[in-house]
Structure formats: C-alpha cells, structure tokens
Amino acid sequence: MARTDTPSQPLAVGGRPAASLAARLLLGLVLLVAVGWAAGELWVASIGGKEADLMRELASERGQAAVDAARVVTWLGSLWLLIPVGLVACVLLLRAKLFAETIALAVGLLGAILIYNVTKGLVARPRPPVEHLQKVGGFSFPSGHATQASAFWLSLLLAFNRTGSRKRRAAAAAVIAIVGAVAWSRVYLGVHYPSDVVAGVALGSAWALYVARCLYAGRASAG
C-alpha cells in the first residue's frame, strides 16, 4: 500500500502565516518611523521656536503639588512598570488560551520601543530649554514614555475587550486617563515639548491598532 505524506502546514498566528505576518509588521514599523520622521522634521522647522517659549512659560508656573503628582504618574509610562505588568498580563492571557492577544501585547510594546528610538535618532530634536525635573538622556521627539504607554495600554485594552468582559467602557476610560496623565507628566516635568507627547501618543496608538489588525484578522471576537 502506497504511503501518502500530508504536507506540513506553515506556522500561522492569528489566522495568517507567520512569515507573511512578520513582513506586514515590519512594513508597519518602517512606515510609522517614516511618518514620525517626516512629521518631526516639519514641525521642528516650522513651530519649534514657539514651543520653546511655551515651555519656558509653563516651567515658570509649576507648583510643587503638581510636580509631585507628575513624578508619580509618569511611572505609568516607564518600562520599569510596563515590563513586569506586561509579563503578568501575558501569563494570564496564555492561561486563557488567548495566544494572538499575548503576541499582540508583546509586539505592541517592543515595536513601540523600536519606533520611538529610531525616530528620535532621525529627528534629533534637543530637549526643552528649561529645568528638567526628571533625569533624562537622548533626544526629545517623540516622547518615549508617551509612545510606549499608548502602545502598551491600548494593546492591553484591545486584548481585554476580546475576553467578552462587560467592563469595556470602564477599561477604555482608564486607559485614556493613564495615557493622558503620562503625556501631561512629561511636559510638566520639562523633559518634553507638547508636540513630542502628541506624536508619541499618535505613533504608539497607531502601532497598537495596526498590530491588532494584523493578528486578529479573520478571528471572531470572544465577546
């Protein structure tokens, strides 16, 4: 009796072949870096000087209570918090057999880190010319905290929404509040211009949504 071998199937994630998915994600990374670079160069060339004056005015009106609050909430966008929270979330998602959601959360954070680091180097915008109330290094545009906070918390929200929970609106409100607080804290502490955090939120959110679209395509929601 003749033996017939079943051809092996390519590794798939979220309904897409892994190689195709990796190519799509890489393309998204490149496009977002290009958009961030172009937006940064255009903004700095046209509005940069006026923003410096705005930062000087804001710095002159800082109050100690608000500074203390900013120093606390800014940690919601720090990798020192996002990495351990992300690891716990990934374990919980894996236990719930939400494999695509686990990958989306991890790729969302790691990709955001890549996007803002490359874009910072390309735009090379100096930090605001005011006293920095938190130790920072490197360039200013876009805000790394705003980018990674947006990507991480939005990715977590999208994964949470697929669990079928009825607390989606409360979760969405919490994510908006967290990202908004992180963005505000970076400006208030004098380490970023307003446009840096706006760009960070836009890039991080766009990346999280793009990753979710790639990974969740063809899969029905759990809700």
Pick out the low-confidence regions: 1-11
Note the run of SSEs as H and E.
Answer: EEHHHHHHH
Structural class label:
mainly alpha
Q: Biggest sheet, in brief?
A: 2 strands, antiparallel
Write down the Rg.
Answer: 20 Å
Count of alpha and pi helical runs:
7
The average pLDDT score comes to 89
When the domains are counted, the total is 1
Q: Which band does the percent of strand residues land in?
A: under 5%
- How many strands appear in the DSSP assignment? 2
Helix fraction, binned, reads: 55-70%
Task: State the distance separating the first and last CA atoms.
Answer: 49 Å
Chain-wise SSE layout:
Blueprint: E1 12-13, E2 16-17, H1 18-59, H2 64-73, H3 79-95, H4 99-123, H5 144-161, H6 168-188, H7 194-216
Antiparallel strand pairs: 1-2
Helix pairs in contact: 1-4, 1-7, 2-6, 3-4, 3-5, 4-5, 4-7, 5-6, 5-7, 6-7
